[in-house]
Every structure is written in structure tokens, then in C-alpha cells.
Q: What sequence folds into this?
């Protein structure tokens, strides 16, 4: 890059500072306040005696952990939900998943839309909504419609699963409670279960798995994608052809590519292991379902301890990547991963701008994606090192558990209840960071100091 | 960043292509040819019957593995050297360490100096040598002087250790052979031993450890640092004050900061473990020596299996970072790590240019450092996943072994001889990549395709 280029970069500072203020600091505070408030309320509600079954084990740590896990829709738990909570308790959990999963997703999307408008640059218009619609009331209206749609999806899921569960449960009330909880848990990608053993009872029921996967994908694909699909469906007849945004294309493509790659890799790694002796359709559904669920849902049709170390490491990577931004998922997010990979390929081919789907990616976004990846790797690595010092469990189960918390996935090799108080708090922090998004953290750490005005000479160094 | 900025980036392509050709492709071919040639020769020489003790176990795989390990100065081994090689064999190994460690370091530095001159930009002048001196004969002369200096250091080390070892070995010949091998093994950061148990016999001999650490640091600090120190000493009297290059400052500072941090962390992690009940000076030397050796040397004063999982994970990180560029070490290199960290801090503080030691880092170098880190993380992660599928050893020993190979460190939890043929070949490849440097690989993968001339509109996406 030339001298003039860096000169340009230097001149950008005022814009940058404006962005820092407008985009991140205030929304971040709102999000964090909302998060801690709901965790507090849920912890208190779950601690009410009416929420629990007679004689169930319970501690303040359990209350805080399960509240944090449900508001972050992670699904890790220190107790067996089916043996701990009353029907009232289960409804409190359903409430927590809604305010956690859908609430945070909505707030995120809201700020994203507002930010897109306030900056006022046409090329930064992130979602293909009418400019007219983007006044505050139009925005609230848009989000409300989508919220209704999600609740409708959850209701349909509950109805379908509830009716179908009458094959499994004699009491229709029990069947519909199970169906409702399963539907909400899948749609919000929470991954909690009240069966006592996740979806293992349905390991051979492809219908339940199919419905669950649809609900999981609808939750994990991201709110912005929803708004565009809605627009696409409603505005199909108008003269100007609707175009999906670059964001929607990248996140959706990445989501489904990873889904397919995950299925193939899990199948290959377990072909001679867990899947040996199983029919092709069993093997296919085991691989597909686990690939789908490992991105942020955390529901399982098998026991993680039956899988090989390499499969568990691979699954940890899937959880680390996570779901789409502004969805109910966590991790570094699909777009971060996509930009990381695109950056590498373009760099290797000697290109300095990243082009994909006939669009050029903004350089700032590429840098951002690299920052997110680095911070996530540092966070992940140091968490594993620290927990392996404090916890008396196997290394692989820690590697898996940390990825599960950061990716707000909730799958576990079963160590969660055995962790120390310190270990549980570390997971609570990881779930929080994974859910809120790692980039937001960078911005609260950043001071608003003005950089020195004088310039230093440039000098090169040898790398790698 | 603005439109104009990316415009600038686009215009840079011709320069970039020139660089690709001049800097990386040709030197890379030379390096790789040299590497494979020396590995082949060493493997053949080691396979001569005269190189081995009567009746020692030996296979073609051992020959290739130990040749690759010695040319890459890694020090991982599939056999016990002290029980396998004759005195002739030990001298062949010493030869291999010289052509591997010092040879590759020299070639690297040579191309770096030539590159610095050919580009002809004053601001890219990497080393503070006279322009006059940078004709080919001056260059060869400079490198030759430094080579002599290194061999002198090795000789002094051999003499000091050999004389001192007369306390340990009755036969003076044995003492001096041990001294010579130890000196070369330390200076080239190879980490091989012919004691049969590394430096564990000297775990309480602080003199041996001190001398060894000095030799290790002299090898790992990097050839370019040497040329500058030499210049600093010889040209001290001239009118213009000598200034160390930014590269030398960054790599030396990073090297020593990591040395101190490593000592403190190892001490803290093992305070209640391996070090409990040991005196302060024992604890200090155990921590300091392992911190020094974990960067690329691989000599040990303790058994890795006595350490806790968290310490081993931390040490794996040190090995992954490795030593200085153009040194006898491997890994992602100190400068890569330094630029990664500086990038994060500057980004968090909202700055777009990285300033350190009163100089501004070139944007290209920052991007390069991020590419190296990402590739290394991908290489590291996928190697661990693959080996955990193919090898029947513990996960932690694989994590450690992969870091050790990539960082050309050579410390091991003892699994090397037990690996499958596939596993051994993977380590050979990792040692090769670690030694040659990961960035070089990117450039052979890169095609010389001209990027399309038309432009796409820019569009932003949500990250993280
Ligand atoms: K989840
Ligand atoms: K070594």
C-alpha cells in the first residue's frame, strides 16, 4: 500500500469515532442491561418454590446458571430439567427462552436497521427495506410483524409436535406440553429438553427430527434474512426486481455449506465408529441432525460420549463458528467465518479486494472479521487452559464444553453439573460473550483517546 | 475506508505481482530444493551401517524422520539417539544440524537482503547495512563473517561444556563429544540429545543450564539481529548514530517479553504441582529453562508427563509462537505474534495505523501477519483433529506434539515412536512448514491470474 493510502486512513478518524459512538456504545449498553435484567428476573422466578418439583435439588448457583443459560439460549444445565421443574417452572423457562432468544435477536436487528439509516450512506444500506418504512414507527411495525411470525411458527411447531407426541405420551396434556417445549426450544435454538435425555428417544423417528431441524434452521438463519424473505414474498409483483442483500446471500450460503460439510465430515469420521453396523438412513439422519444441531441448537439424538475424539473436536469447531448474526445463535457467526475464508483465498490469489456474489466486500468488514476471529481464538484458548487447571475432568470434555458455551450450543459431554463454582461462572461469561457477540466487547474496552497527530516514518518487518 | 482507498489498493496490483515473483517464488524454490536435497542426503548417510551401533533397531521410516527432524532442527525422534548412533552417526547428525539450522537461516537472510535491495525503496530497507556493502560480493562476505561467528560460538560452547562435562564423564573423549553435541544442539536449537534423557541429568546444574540457555537464545534471536549487532559494535565510532531497525526491536522485545511471561506462567501453573516442595532457585531454573527451551530448542530438564494439562497447553502456545524470523526456530514467529497483538490493541483503541518504537508498521505487514496466524491456526487445528482420528494416544500428547513439530521445538510427551506411519509423515510435513515459514506456502498456492478489470459495487455485511 502506498503513502497516500495510509494518509487516507488517517483522515478517516472522525468518521470512525462517530461510528463508535452511534453504532456500538449505546446499543451495547441497552443489550447488556436487557441481558442482565432478564437473567436476574428469570433466576428469581425459577427460585420460587412453585417452579420446582417436591424435593428437587436446588441452589442459588443453579438458579443463576440456568437463568444465564436460558436467556443466552445456550441450553447447558447443572440439573436435569425434567426432574427439577414443575409445569409452572417449565413455563417460566419458555418465557426465558423467548425474552432471551427472540428478544436479543430483535434488539440486535433494531439497532442494525437504525444504524443503517442514521449513517445515511446508500452503500451501507444493509437490508432491502423501503426508505419510507425505515422511520421509527415503520421499523417497530416491521419487527412486530416478524415477531408475530416467529410466535406463529412456534405455535405451529408446538401443534404439530404435540399432536404427533400423542404416539409417545398417553396423557394428551403431557404430549402437548412436551410439544410446546420442544418447539420453543428448537426455534429459539435453546436446546433444553424436558424428556430427560434430549432427543435420544426420537433417534429413529425421522419425522420429529425433520420438524425439529426446520425449526432450528428458521431460528438460526437470522432475523435480517427473515425481513428480506418477507419482502421478497410480498413485493414480488412490483416492477423493480427484488434483490437479496449481500449479507443474506453470504450468511445463508455459509450456513447451508457448513450444514452439508458438517454432515459429510461427521459421517466420514464415525463411519467405522458410532455409525458402523447402522443402516444408510440411520447414519444419514444421525450425521445430518448432529450437523444441524451443532451450530447453536444443542439438541442431540445420541450420547456425545459414544463419539470419537476427532468427531468431538470437529463438532467443537462447528459450535465455535456458530449461527448467523442477529439470530438466536452464538459463536463467531457465519459471516465472520465466511469473510475469514474469503480473505485467505483472495490473499493467496494476490487480490486485495474481496469480491463475492458480484459485490465487493468493504475493507472495514474484513478487518472486523479478523478481529473477531482473533479475539475468539484467544478467548477460547485461554478458557481451555484455565479450566483445565481448575476442573478435574477430561481435556476433551473441556474443549467441547467451552465451544458449546461460546457457540451458545448447549451440547455437553455431561460435565456441567460437576464443574467448580469458578468453572460455572466462566461458562456463564462465555455464554454471555457468545450471545452478545465478541465485537461488542472490543468497543467497550476501547477508549476514546485521540490518536497523536504527528506521524512516524513507516518501516517494514519480516513476517512468518 | 473510502472508495478512493480501495481504488488505490486496486492500482497496487502490478507492484504486488512483481513482489510475488521477486520475493517469494524463486527464493521459495531454492529453499525447498535445498531442504529436500539435504533431507535426502542425511537420510542416506544415517542409513550407512557405519553410522549406527551394532544391533540397533532401524527402519527407512526412522531414517527419513530423523533426517527431516534434524534438517528442520526440530529434535523429535523415533529412536533413542544415544542407543542407536555410533560416533560417526553423531557427527553426521551434527553436520545435518549445521546444514539445516544455519544453512536455511542463511538462505532466508540472503534473500531478505537481496529483496530489500532489489525493490529499491528506501523505506523498505530492512537492515541497517551500507548501500555499498549490498552488492552481491559484499553480501556474501557479510553472511560468511556471521557464519564464522556462529561456528566460533558453537566451538566456544563445545569447549566450555566439554571441559565442564569432565565432572560427569570419566572419559575425556566422551565428555568433549557430549560437549560438542550439546553445544551444536543448543545453538542450532535442534534439541537433540545423546545423553538419552535430554538435560534431565543436569536438572540441578545451573551452570550447564545457563550456558545452554545463552546458546539457545543466540540461535533463536535471528540472523538479521546478528548483522545489526555486529554493525553496532563495529561502527560505533562513526559520526551518524547507529539505529537498530524496527524489525530487530520488535523481534528482540517480543522474544524476551515472552521469555519472562513464560517463566512466570509456568511457575504459577506448577507452583502447587511439579514445583511444590522445591526450593525457590530450583523452581526458578525449572521455569526459566523450560520457558527458554519451549520456543524452539526443545531441550528439557524435566519429564513433560510430570506437568499439568494446563501447563502443557500453555507450553504448546509458546511453541506455536516460536522464535524470530530468519533464525533457527519455527512457529508463526515473534514478529507475526507481535503484529497480531499490536493490531488488536490498536483496533480496540480505534486506531487505523499501528505505531510502535516511534515507527509506523506497514499495512501490508499487518495483513501478512493475520494471514500467517489464520493459516497456522487452521493447520494446527486440522492436524490435531486428523491425528486424534488416526493415532491411539492421548489428546493432550497430540496437541503438544503438533505444536512441537510446527514450532520445530522437538519437546515431546514421548509418543513419537508410537505414531503410525501416517502420523509420522504428518509430523514431517508440519516440521517442514514450521521451518520454511507458513507464508511461503501461500505464495506457491497463489496463481498469477489477472484479477477481472470490472468493478462490483461495495456492500457491507454484519460481522460477529
Ligand atoms: K443452544
Ligand atoms: K528444536
A:
Amino acid at each position: 500500500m502506498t503513502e497516500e493510502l495510509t494518509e487516507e486512513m488517517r483522515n478517516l478518524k472522525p468518521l470512525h469515532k462517530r461510528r463508535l459512538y452511534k453504532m456500538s456504545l449505546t446499543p451495547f449498553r441497552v443489550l447488556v442491561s436487557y441481558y442482565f435484567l432478564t437473567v436476574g428476573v428469570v433466576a428469581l422466578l425459577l427460585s420460587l418454590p412453585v417452579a420446582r418439583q417436591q424435593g428437587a435439588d436446588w441452589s442459588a448457583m443453579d438458579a443463576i446458571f440456568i437463568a444465564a443459560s436460558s436467556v443466552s439460549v445456550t441450553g447447558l444445565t447443572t440439573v436435569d430439567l425434567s426432574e427439577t421443574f414443575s409445569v409452572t417452572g417449565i413455563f417460566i423457562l419458555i418465557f426465558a427462552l423467548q425474552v432471551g432468544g427472540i428478544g436479543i435477536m430483535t434488539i440486535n436487528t433494531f439497532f442494525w436497521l437504525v444504524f443503517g439509516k442514521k449513517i445515511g450512506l446508500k452503500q451501507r444500506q444493509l437490508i432491502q427495506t423501503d426508505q419510507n418504512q425505515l422511520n421509527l414507527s415503520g421499523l417497530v411495525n416491521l419487527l412486530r410483524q416478524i415477531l408475530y411470525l416467529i410466535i406463529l411458527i412456534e405455535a405451529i411447531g408446538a401443534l404439530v409436535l404435540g399432536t404427533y407426541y400423542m404416539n409417545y405420551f398417553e396423557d394428551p396434556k403431557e404430549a402437548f406440553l412436551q410439544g410446546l417445549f420442544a418447539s420453543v426450544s428448537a426455534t429459539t435454538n435453546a436446546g433444553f429438553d424436558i424428556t430427560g435425555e434430549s432427543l435420544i428417544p426420537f433417534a429413529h423417528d425421522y419425522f420429529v427430527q425433520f420438524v425439529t431441524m426446520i425449526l432450528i434452521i428458521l431460528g438460526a438463519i437470522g432475523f435480517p434474512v427473515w425481513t428480506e424473505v418477507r419482502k421478497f414474498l410480498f413485493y414480488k409483483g412490483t416492477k423493480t426486481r427484488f434483490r437479496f442483500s449481500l449479507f443474506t446471500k453470504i450468511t445463508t450460503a455459509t450456513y447451508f455449506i457448513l450444514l452439508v460439510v458438517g454432515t459429510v465430515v461427521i459421517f466420514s469420521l464415525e463411519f467405522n465408529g458410532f455409525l458402523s453396523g447402522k443402516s444408510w438412513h440411520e447414519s444419514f439422519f444421525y450425521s445430518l441432525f448432529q450437523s444441524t444441531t451443532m451450530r447453536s441448537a444443542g439438541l442431540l439424538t445420541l450420547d456425545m460420549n459414544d463419539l470419537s475424539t476427532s468427531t468431538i473436536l470437529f463438532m467443537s469447531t462447528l459450535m465455535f463458528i456458530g449461527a448467523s448474526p442477529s439470530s438466536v445463535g452464538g459463536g463467531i457467526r457465519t459471516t465472520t467465518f465466511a469473510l475469514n475464508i474469503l480473505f485467505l483465498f483472495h490473499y493467496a490469489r494476490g487480490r486485495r479486494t474481496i469480491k463475492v456474489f458480484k459485490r465487493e466486500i468493504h475493507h472495514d468488514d474484513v478487518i472486523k472479521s479478523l478481529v473477531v476471529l482473533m479475539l475468539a481464538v484467544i478467548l477460547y484458548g485461554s478458557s481451555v487452559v484455565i479450566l483445565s487447571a481448575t476442573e478435574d475432568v477430561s481435556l476433551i470434555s473441556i474443549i467441547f464444553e467451552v465451544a458449546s458455551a461460546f457457540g451458545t450450543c448447549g451440547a455437553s459431554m455431561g460435565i456441567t453439573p460437576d464443574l467448580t463454582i469458578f468453572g460455572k461462572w466462566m461458562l456463564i461469561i462465555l455464554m454471555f460473550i457468545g450471545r452478545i457477540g465478541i465485537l461488542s466487547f472490543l468497543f467497550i474496552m476501547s477508549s476514546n483517546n485521540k490518536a497523536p497527530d504527528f506521524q512516524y516514518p513507516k518501516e517494514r518487518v519480516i513476517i512468518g
In short: Residues 92 and 266 of chain A are 35 Å apart (CA to CA). Strands of chain A lie at 355-356, 359-361, 458-459. Residues 24-234+244-445 of chain A form one domain.
